[in-house]
Specification:
6-stranded mixed beta sheet; binds magnesium ion; about 15% helix; elongated; binds adenosine monophosphate; alpha/beta
Length: about 400
């Protein structure tokens, strides 16, 4: 039995870096950049007016109100064909280049036109006011996005401004998913006596997709070794093969023998965590193999804490783990297992601090309870209980930011 930390280190050490590929900007969302992105231009590319108003010389209006001669207009998209001299001003629009001679823009609300050729500047402005100088944000050649960055909408804007109509990102890991269990029936079926619907196939596929994977569904295999081997074989071409169920100590938990028979080398078969102790990890040729416990909450949690970081590492992401925060427990929790626990919980910001309440759950089969969680409270193996009011660590789950705070 290895610890959580040892297991994660083993998994990450085995995860290979995938090659890069070029994608169109509109397909780059959520992908991991496989190159540093350099700006091919200064930003702003010219001294840019930040307000509609008048471009002028700040010295001229130190004793405002002052009347200036209006010598013309500069619009966004125009290159100025005028220069602002002493006692002069040019009407200017937001986004337009500040003409030579001017060193500030006074906003239109602080001016009063006298006629077409004269304006009263009502208040002084400091030199540089309302002007974004050329290259003050980004210099041509600067790294504006680093390799390993996950492309989010803000990064899309930076790629666009850097002229990257195509971006180099890591190839998606191909993840094959096999669900096992004689009792498992398709989502569309009405379960007969003793049967349950396949929820792990869809949930593991969803988690893999959110982690950037290209998913191949291998279906549902019965608890018979030859049938398992036949169903596993097409998964050996994938970067990662994720199997649900059949890895505990029962008589019909035949995933390990089936994988061994196919040539798998296991790096661990048990981790000191709760939920999820029977967690198998190894290699079969170039393919990483994960055998997740069949219990739906165990499958989701072990995917999140081991498979997801591995898939992100393959894509070269710099951040592999979810954010961890310190929370005050609003209810006590017990951890008599002697293993590191990840308890589904709700974390909220209350009266100036982050607080956590474990969700009421019947255990690692309770997928409905897990869907009410937005975080996992982590209780270390050597902490048999944590009381209300004590501090603990919480991992914020992917739904944390979108959570509306009112589950069910
Ligand atoms: P196992 O790990 O195969 O012993 O399964 C543990 C528990 O998880 C059993 O109650 C199974 O019925 C349940 N289970 C296994 N696979 C799935 C699945 N794909 N969808 C929903 N429940 C499952
Ligand atoms: Mg089973």
């Amino acid at each position: 039995m290895v610890s959580f930390e040892e297991a994660l280190a083993i998994v990450l050490a085995e995860a290979p870096a995938l090659p890069g590929e070029e994608v169109a900007l509109e397909d780059a969302l959520s992908r991991v950049l496989a190159e540093d992105v350099l700006s091919d231009t200064d930003l702003p590319p010219f001294d840019r007016a930040a307000m509609d108003g008048y471009a002028l010389r700040a010295d001229d209006v130190a004793g405002a109100p002052v009347a200036l001669d209006v010598i013309g207009e500069v619009r966004a998209g125009q290159w100025p064909d005028l220069a602002v001299g002493p006692g002069q001003a040019a009407r200017i629009m937001t986004g337009a280049p500040v003409p030579p001679g001017a060193d500030a823009v006074q906003q239109v609300e602080r001016t009063q036109p006298l006629d077409e050729f004269r304006v009263t500047i009502l208040a002084p402005v400091a030199p540089g006011a309302n002007v974004a100088p050329r290259a003050s944000e980004v210099r041509k050649g600067d790294v504006v996005l680093a390799r390993g960055r996950v492309v989010d909408p803000a990064a899309v804007a930076v790629l666009a401004s850097a002229g990257k109509a195509r971006a180099r990102v890591s190839r998606r890991p191909v993840v094959a998913i096999l669900v096992t269990g004689d009792e498992i029936v398709d989502v569309a079926a009405v379960p007969g006596p003793g049967q349950v619907r396949n929820s792990n196939g869809p949930s593991v596929a969803a988690q893999a997709r959110l982690a950037g994977a290209d998913v191949r569904l291998l279906g549902v295999a019965p608890d018979r070794q030859e049938a398992l081997e036949a169903a596993l074989r097409p998964g050996l071409a994938a970067d990662a093969l994720v199997v649900s169920g059949g890895v505990s100590a029962g008589d019909y938990d035949l995933v390990e023998p089936a994988l061994l028979d196919l040539g798998a080398r296991f790096l661990f078969t048990k981790v000191a965590i709760k939920p999820g102790a029977p967690l198998v990890f190894g290699r079969l040729g170039e393919t990483l193999v994960f055998g997740l416990p069949g219990n739906p909450v165990s499958a989701q949690v072990t995917f999140d804490i081991f498979v997801r970081p591995a898939l992100l590492k393959m894509q070269g992401a710099r951040v592999l783990e979810r954010p961890r925060v310190s929370v005050e427990l609003r209810e006590g929790v017990k951890n008599r297992s002697g293993r590191k626990s990840h308890l589904p919980a709700r974390v909220a910001f209350e009266a100036g601090r982050l607080v956590a309440r474990p969700v009421r759950s019947m255990g690692s089969g309770d997928l409905a309870a897990h869907a009410r969680a937005n975080a996992l409270v982590v209780i270390e193996a050597d902490r048999p209980q944590a009381r209300a009011g004590e501090t603990a660590e919480a991992v914020l789950l992917g739904n944390f930011l979108e959570d509306d705070g009112a589950p069910l």
